[in-house]
Write a structure and sequence with these properties.
Arc Repressor Mutant, subunit A, mainly alpha, 2 domains, Tetracycline Repressor, domain 2
Length: 239
Amino acid sequence: MSERVVPAADRQRRRPTKQGVVLSEELIVATALRLIEEHGADALSVRRLGRALGADPSSLYRYFRHTDDLMLAVADELIGRTLRSWRPTGDWLADLRELGLRMHAGALAHPRAAMLSAHRVTGRAHEIQAVEAGLGVLREAGFPDPEAARIYHAFIDQALAFGALDSAGTSLPRPAREAEAEVWRGTYGRLPAGTHPHIAATSRHLVSTMRASSYPAALDLLLTAARTRLDQFRADGVG
């Protein structure tokens, strides 16, 4: 794609595409998201998108400067879907836990897009809304501004990283996933206590837990640490 983006007010097509739809930024992003899940990063080509939309590929230039611009829009759409039904309740621990779990679930719902976008900063409406909301939860809980920013950074990076990690795992072919699960049973579950006492002592727990995501546990650890920090700030009269 190029630098020929048309202002939003001038983007509306006067007639439908070959498939009877009117192009919009929302439709293009939704189509790109679907194609990414079907074909991976190769889906973000002007030709493939145009074919899926039943539109002349050059018409996409009216909405996005280039494919990376579209990728950022897809990343922002994933954030928007996470926020769509999330509402803070005033219980900062519960609110952040719910937000984190929603982010993780959203990544698993669109694993290929999550892997492609987890490291991106969009600067778009949904991301700005998420940053404002997350910082608001922390500041209203009583965290000093530097600590609110620090905890928000850790919270978001943890959610995005686990989302990408677990998405990569779920994207493996079923035989590969089953083979990896068997490693925990067939290898770690059989190591002798004489040579590997710690693995042997915990092997049955490893076998039962290593197949599932550790994100909920990691999230709880982060939030517990944050609560301890807040208690200390309150005890010290900082805030």
